[in-house]
## 1
Amino acid sequence: MADLAVNICGIDSPNPFWLASAPPTNTGDQVARAFDAGWGGAVWKTIGEPIENTWSRYSSVDLDGHRMMGLNNIELITDRPLETNLAEIEAVKSRYPDNALIVSLMVESTREAWQRIVRQAEDAGADGVELNFGCPHGMSERGMGSAIGQVPEYCRDIVGYAKEVATKPVFVKLTPNIADIVQPARAAKAGGADAISLINTINSITGIDLDTFAPRPTVAGQSSHGGYCGPAVKPIALHMVSAIARDADAGTVPISGIGGIATWREAAEFILLGATTVQVCTAVMHWGYRIVEGMIDGLSGYLDAKGMASVNELRGRSVDRLQKWENLDLNYVIKAHIDQEACIGCGLCYIACNDGAHQAIGAERHGDRTRVWIKEDACVGCNLCSLVCPVHNCITMEEQETDHESLTWVDYSAGKGTLEPRPKHGVTITAE
Amino acid sequence: MTTVVKPSLTPRPRLTPSAAFAEAHRCLMCWDAPCIRACPTAIDIPGFIKRIAYQDDRGAARVILEANLLGDSCAHVCPTSVLCEGACVLNDVDGRPVPIGRLQAYATSPVVQGGVQLFTPAPATGKKVALVGGGPAGLACAAELTLRGHEAVVFDAAAEAGGLNTRGVADYKQPRSAALTEIAWLQDLGVAIRHNTVVGEDVTFTELLDGFDALFFGAGLGAIPVLGIPGETLPGVEDALQLIEAVKSGATPSDAFAGKRVIVLGGGNTAIDAARLAVRLGAARTVVVYRRGPDEMPAYHHEVAEARREGVAFSFWSAPHSVVGDGKVEAMRCRRTEPGAPGADGRPAVVTSDEPPFDVAAAVVLRATGQATRQSLLAELPDVATDGRGRVIVDDEQRTSQPGIWAGGDCVNGGKEVVNAVAEGMAAARSIDEELRR
């Protein structure tokens, strides 16, 4: 069995699976049960000055009958007394010395407030703190959360306040509600951050009750924008993690990846793009702590199959596979191939290609079935047919023999190399 | 040893919204969908299913009913496993097609059974069409004509219209009350029905042809003829369709066959319906006697399989010889048969063996050996041509050989499904409408 233990900025964790700062880490009882279930670490739900919550707090987006593809919340930081949280943090840490316990913090933007809460968290036994510069709702109206994460200078300064007193690692949790995620990441590093956590939630409105016209989650007929998370946000999170990992400056800071992770597969993807640990929230809000068992088994089995002794061997392996578009090979030719034995004749590839892509698939009735075929000379290898096909491995994209060397846009636009012949275009329409 | 299952007495319940939503999302929305091609009324099945998925249930009902105004009945009585669901491409994925029939019922029932009217007839044309027979073909034709602005008047000999929908469909598929509610919905749409009106007696064809701009003949088929074998008049020998009708109307009690041995003669879907009904009426043993083998049975394989699951036994290659009994049925005397040379229809001829006859004990014998055509009624329409089996000959628009007369349903197709009758009725309506607007 591959070794899943990791160390992020000096903090040991038995595995890379952490709970994100969120409702699943609201209480000591919850965190203790999570550790019992197998979670390697947890980031305690953000503590700070007392707040009050609305009652109605969550709303979601379903897709084709699958529940909670995306989850939205307008819940604020903890609404429990600071002393209660600190006492429970101390109790949990003493009972689970081998698990990583980070405490998320959010207070007003003064040196005194930040330094006081950092000391309190460390005194309670936290292995580190995570500065919450990410929440995009509620607290941001009060100048906290994403209001900090959206201004790199604030990020740098507040990290600096924390680092002046911190004796344990300082994580900075970034908001994705910004044009270029690299800027606050660099600022966090400049302020002395030991690790970066991302992404926090994305500004969102999940939907509207079509009977009452009230957006969701509805609070007495009104709503407010919330923060979006869950499977729907994973691609955005992966992109932002990769952007930081690829940055020569911010890329040296360890990353705790967050956003739509529900199984070992998403965890592996974040690790391949540079994350050392991953944080999970929505999937636990949906399925409970028990999902970590499958994550541990799945990642171990995957590493074994890849011949890797440690999860550390996996980290960052895909970072260099991301390039600027101009460096991609224009002479890499693939074409769709349909396994006629596996085909069930639904015709979705045909309609998708014909209406939605490049008119490179033919279809006709063949007895009482629909038969489809690839028009080799028109196929641009776009992948769409293989994406819509409901049968596993029925449509595969096959690499083609080519006559010319690989050629990037950079070289081609400089007049170098020879392009492979391009596919012919579809039907030409005339005015008549 | 197969396990005998307890037969269900009631139709399948309506899908719950959650189940309908989940099943609707399984539909792949095929291009040139094979399910549509397999539906005699060519309902846009992916279209209505996706409307359910997108939570537009009324839109789904509209799509169904526009193509098939008896879509609520068809949702319950169609042999979907050999039609739409049999063609579903998901059969090739995991053998679990989308439950199209149940989704259709999910959409149509609240509308049709709930008395919700989705359609507004076109402006009146002033044209009148008479429809002879208020079964599925006539009702569908009349309703479609009504929507197209014509005055449609259905003449039905019975006190309740609906034909086999009201009198012949097993209650565990669709109860009589649901068929009657559907008819009330069609009447609310504007279809006029003259009940208890026998064409040829209470009104003549001449009067109909003179008083209306077009005539649709959809009188279906007649009773099941007697076999002409000894003992057939003994009490206990019944016409299977009359039994089904009597049970549906309540005239025959639901425990009528308690403890009795029942024999059903025939190998078609009516025979299977009657056998499954006998089980539900408490029969101690039910045997279907058929003069050919299992492969030659006209009945649907899935219906035969269901009947077997419910405990129905089969005596193949057995021909009725006589009914034995003293004052009442005591046994069915049969002779062995064997396949001979293939006949004109491709099926082997039936050759009766020389072996001595054998008796199968029975208190009830149900005749399900095929309905007769309505020769006497058709004789009053001498210019309407029929084929060698007495079926009305029509073209691809359901026009008979006589201008101004269209036909559809069992009297044309010899006895098919409700959905075939509806398809023919609606096709005739389109043709009549075109003719009347010339």
## 2
Amino acid sequence: MSTDLHYLTIAEGAERLRQRTLSPVDWVEALLTRIEGFDGELHAFLALTAAAARAQAVAAEREIVAGSYRGPLHGVPYALKDIYDTAGIPTTAQSWVCQGRIPQRDAFAQRRLVDAGAILVGKLATHEFAYGGPSFDLPAPPARNPWGLTHFTGGSSSGSGVAVAAGLVPGALGSDTGGSIRHPAAHCGIVGFKPTAGLVSRAGVIPLSYSYDTCGPMAWTVEDCAILLGAIAGYDADDPQSADVPIPDYRTAIGRDIRGLRIGVVRHFFEADKPTDAPIKAAIATALKELAALGAEIEDVTLAPLDDFAACQWVITCAEANAIHDDNLRHRMTDYGENFRYRILPGATLSAADYVQAQRLRRQLIAETRQKMEGFDVLLTATVPTVAPVVENMTLSSVLASRGITAAFNTLGWPALALCCGFSEAGLPLSLTIAGKPFDEATVLRVADAYERATPWRRRRPDLAQAAA
Amino acid sequence: MSNDADAKTRHVIELRWAALETTARQFDQFCEAAPHVAALLRRIPRERSRWDDPANVFVLPSDKRR
């Protein structure tokens, strides 16, 4: 268990809060101090809600002492990607287009966290409208990777990845349309979980793509993601995609063995379709041995080519994003950052037939993959093809190029979790992905947690002084 | 007219149809991205049975969700 308050996981902190050996006031104060000390360089936060957080911490402490303990998020600090609406608190998608926008209602997921007694510390950096970045022409600078400040954080949930990795908050919410939870989770060395499409309501979350947008948790451990997911999952009539399915207690998947579970390795994704950096391939090979040693049965599986998944995801996302931004693109083009424009403008030329054909391909890919998945409990592949690149060396098109593998699981709509599987020689995090069948988040969490507990990667934290050097 | 000039003319028309006005720099970036987009579109099959539904067909909500 961590002795530093800023490195407490949600599970550790929650247990201490429940036992009343930790005050939420002290926890929140420790994090605010750390944010003040380091966020000047990390740029993870767009806005702090310090006064409200302090008041909520006092209220939470009073409730817990009075015996009204609500559960594992009561008194726990967290932060939100700045596309989640927060009543009375600016929500800007890090865009000039939304400067001064103050929502009147909370997003569904935010309401759930408030109801669970969690304490919002602030709003986190994102690539513009969850689709640009890293950009230097937006209202705030891009977040910086705590494992090396010159390196890319991944995105678009960049602030969420940074804040969790640097110990600024124990957990955060991100959103994922083509990999925007898993990509920063990979580069920042944390756990990011994109659940099944429809499990978590997107109501009150600034949209990018109606077909693919997915809300999900980002945290230091798999167990913490299970806790957060348990709070935000559930049917919501305000999101037409919301699924009316039973929500299990995801924490029951934690601490279990994985003997006899069948893992399908989608090797061609990271060896042939999107050749991946040698350290990532080596780390995955080692991880497969570790999973086999834990009793899992490992076998390769061949899905459709990665480019088919990626093309399907891109056409649909870009067409829908253009519909959403249509009016502003015509009248306020220059208010968007260069990165966002570069990515979205080609979508303006897509035809209606392009969009429908991509939706037809999506159905085909889902059906084919479902058949291939029959013999397996989960799939395993790389999360991203490279370790975090140096931001200065990135071109406008390089973010596009790094996203193919994650996009496959948006096309499918299935749950996919990215977790750390080692470090490069330069000390940058490596990541693998475990994906599961629709609404079988529990098995994904079970396998990821077993791997996490059997390996040493959660004991290593970024050295912020070194990162700045 | 060279192929490059053909492509640029096509892109001017595409943007005009989309009612989008770009600066010279934005237009150049649009042209730079175009080959990537064309490569992605080539991955999308065009010949399909008419019964081959897309993934986003509308479903009326059940009584429970209404």
